[in-house]
Specification:
This protein is an alpha/beta fold. The chain has a domain at 40-155 and 253-373: 3-Layer(aba) Sandwich (Alkaline Phosphatase, subunit A). It is 31% helix and 18% strand. It has helices spanning 2-14, 48-55, 85-94, 115-121, 137-140, 152-161, 173-176, 185-191, 234-249, 263-268, 272-296, 356-365, and strands spanning 37-43, 69-74, 125-133, 166-170, 194-198, 214-218, 254-260, 299-304, 308-309, 313-314, 325-326, 332-333, 337-342, 351-354. It has a 10-stranded mixed β-sheet, with helices on both faces. A two-stranded antiparallel ribbon has the order 9-12. It has a two-stranded antiparallel sheet with strand order 10-11. Helix 2 crosses helix 11 (272-296), helix 3 packs parallel to helix 12 and helix 9 (234-249) runs parallel beside helix 11. The longest helix is centred in the C-terminal third of the chain and has 25 residues, at 272-296. The protein is globular, with a radius of gyration of 21 Å. 52% of the residues are buried. The structure holds magnesium ion (MG) and zinc ion. The site of magnesium ion has 8 residues, from helix 5. Magnesium ion binds next to helix 5.
Length: 383
C-alpha cells in the first residue's frame, strides 16, 4: 500500500509516469468555478474560411488564437439544413431550433425565453452591440419575439418593453420616425430612465457611459457603414460597454452579446476583401473582450458564428497576405461552425454539438436552473 501511495505521489511529481494518467494542463481559472460574466461574440457569416482568410491576410495571426478551447457546432435550423441568422441566433438565445426567419420563437411559434431575458430577471446587467441595425435578426433574437425578422418596428417595441441595460447599433428610424405608428420610442426609453442618444447628436467617442442609467445609442439611421467606408466603433463600444456593464452589475455579473454583423453581407456580395476587413474589425473587438476577461478571471468569452456565408474557399496560389478567395454561392452554407471559448467553464465548449447546446452550456455555466424550462431543450428538428 505504501509503495503504491508513493508511486502515485511520484506520478504527481513527475506528471508523466503511467500512460493512462493524462497530463493535466494548467488553466487560468479552475473549471469548477462559475463565471460571473458572459460575453458572447457572434461573427455573422464567419465560418472557418472567413477566419482563415482574415488570419492569412494579417501576417498569420488573430486574437482568436489566444482561445484555449475550440469546438464546432451544427448550425442547421428546424426547417432547413442551411440556417438564416434569425433561426441561428434564436438557437443561441433560446436553445431551440426554429424555422428560418423566426425571432425568439420556438418551431411552434411560441415565444421562448432568451438567455438575455433570463439574465435580466436574475439581476444581471445585459447588453447588445451590433454593426447592423440593433433591430436586425441577430441582436433581435436575444430580446424580441416575432414571426418575421423583417418586423423591425415591432422588434423596436419589444426592446422598449425590456430592462436591457445597453443597446448600441444602427436603426434610429425604427425608434423615432416609425411607419406603423406615431410612437416616439426615444421618449418611451427616456421615460424608463434610459440615456438615449445617437450619431446625429454626439459621436460615440464623446458618449458618457454613465452606469447610473441604462443606455440606448444608435450609430446610424438605418444600417451603419461597412468598415471600409469608415465604420470604426465596434472595438471601442465593446471596451467601454464592458467597463460600463461591470460597474452597473455590481456583484451580479452581466451578459453581453457583441455582433460583427457585416461579415455576412460582404460574403453575400462575394467580396472577400471586405469580408477580411470586417472579420479583422471583429477580431479587434475580440481582443478587447479577451483583455477584459484576462484581467478579471471571472468572465467567460465565447466566439462563434450563426452560419457560414458564400462557401468561401482559399484558392491554390494563395500566399501569406495575398489570399485568393473564391465563393461557391451568394447564400449561406451548412458547414460546421467553429466555437472558441476562454475563461471559467470554457472547457465545456470543446467537441461537436448542436448550435442549441451553446445556450445550454451558457446557462449551466451561469448556474441558471433549467429543470422546468421547456424552452431550454433542443427540439428534435428534421434536416
Ligand atoms: Mg446578423
Ligand atoms: Zn446572411
Amino acid at each position: 500500500m505504501k509503495n503504491s501511495a508513493w508511486a502515485i505521489g511520484l506520478c504527481i511529481i513527475l506528471s508523466a509516469c503511467g500512460s493512462p494518467t493524462p497530463l493535466t494542463t494548467v488553466v487560468e481559472t479552475p473549471q469548477s468555478e462559475k463565471p460571473k460574466n458572459i460575453i458572447l461574440i457572434i461573427g455573422d457569416g464567419m465560418g472557418l474560411s472567413q477566419i482563415s482568410t482574415a488570419l492569412y491576410s494579417n501576417n498569420g495571426h488573430l486574437n482568436l488564437e489566444q482561445f484555449p478551447i475550440t469546438g464546432l457546432h451544427k448550425s442547421y435550423s428546424f426547417d432547413d439544413l442551411v440556417t438564416d441568422s434569425a433561426a441561428g441566433a434564436t438557437a443561441f438565445a433560446c436553445g431551440c431550433k426554429t424555422f428560418n426567419g423566426a425571432i425568439g420563437l420556438t418551431k411552434d411559434s411560441i415565444p421562448c425565453k432568451t438567455i438575455l431575458e433570463e439574465a435580466e430577471e436574475r439581476g444581471l446587467a445585459t447588453g447588445l452591440i451590433a454593426t447592423s441595425t440593433i433591430v436586425h435578426a441577430t441582436p433581435a433574437a436575444f430580446i424580441s419575439h416575432v414571426v418575421s425578422r423583417e418586423q423591425y418596428e415591432e422588434i423596436a417595441i419589444d426592446m422598449a418593453k425590456t430592462e436591457v441595460d445597453l443597446l448600441i447599433g444602427g436603426g434610429k428610424k425604427y425608434f423615432d420616425r416609425r411607419d406603423m405608428d406615431e410612437r416616439n420610442l426615444y421618449k418611451e426609453f427616456e421615460k424608463k430612465g434610459y440615456y438615449v442618444s445617437d450619431y446625429s447628436y454626439e459621436e460615440i467617442g464623446s458618449l458618457r457611459f454613465d452606469p447610473n442609467k441604462n443606455l440606448l445609442y444608435l450609430t446610424a439611421d438605418k444600417h451603419p457603414l461597412n468598415v471600409e467606408a469608415g465604420r470604426d466603433y465596434l472595438s471601442y463600444a465593446t471596451r467601454r460597454s464592458l467597463e460600463y456593464l461591470e460597474k452597473k452589475s455590481g456583484d451580479k455579473g452581466f451578459f453581453l452579446m457583441v455582433e460583427g454583423s457585416q461579415i455576412d453581407w460582404a460574403c453575400h456580395a462575394n467580396d472577400y476583401r471586405l469580408a477580411i476587413k470586417e472579420t479583422l474589425d471583429l477580431d479587434r473587438a475580440i481582443g478587447e473582450a479577451l483583455t477584459f476577461a484576462k484581467n478579471r478571471g471571472n468572465t467567460l468569452v465565447i466566439v462563434t458564428a450563426d452560419h457560414e456565408c458564400g462557401g468561401l474557399a482559399l484558392n491554390p496560389g494563395s500566399k501569406m497576405n495575398r489570399v485568393d478567395g473564391a465563393f461557391t454561392t451568394i447564400n449561406h452554407t451548412a458547414s460546421l461552425i467553429p466555437v472558441f471559448a476562454f475563461g471559467p467553464q470554457a472547457k465545456k465548449f470543446a467537441g461537436i454539438y448542436e448550435n442549441t447546446a451553446i445556450h445550454e452550456k451558457m446557462r449551466r455555466a451561469l448556474s441558471f436552473d433549467n429543470k422546468d424550462d421547456k424552452n431550454s431543450k433542443a427540439s428534435s428538428g428534421s434536416n
